[in-house]
Amino acid sequence: MKSEKSYAEWYFLAGVLILFIITYFINSDMAKSALLMFMDIILKVIPIFILIFILMAITNYFIKPKALIRYLGRDSGIKGWMLAISAGVLSSGPIYMWYPLLKDLQKQGMRPGLITAFLYNRAVKIPLLPLLIVYFGFAYSILLMVIMIIVSVFQGMITEKIMEILE
Q1: Which pTM value belongs to this model?
Q2: How far is CA 91 from CA 21, 34, 62, 107, 163, in A?
């Protein structure tokens, strides 16, 4: 992990604010409309952020780093892969809302490969399986899900190898 401080998010925010100000002077109605749309999105997302914050607090309170490392750390083995795959399949909601929790788990020792498997398996959705079967047939649907789960492990292993090289 890099320990150096990055100011990229502040540069991005400054760039967006500058673009908004320029847009305001060019077309104030469009800028006002964009600001109202932004506020509407923020109001919809705040409850989800609160929920994720609560989940992170609960995770930090109940899941101790030693237990996390045992189930999701370097030596977690097949249990870690199964947990990451299952959590990915069962997870719901917008993907970007999982990022803060996954980052927190990574800081506590979760393997990068397991994060990859979790994110990859978000595409496997049990509630949508009947619809997939209607459109593509039973054999194709099951084969697709099995292949996606297997490939998620390979993707995770590849991610871990690349991360080892980069560190």
Answers
A1: 0.64
A2: 39, 31, 19, 20, 25
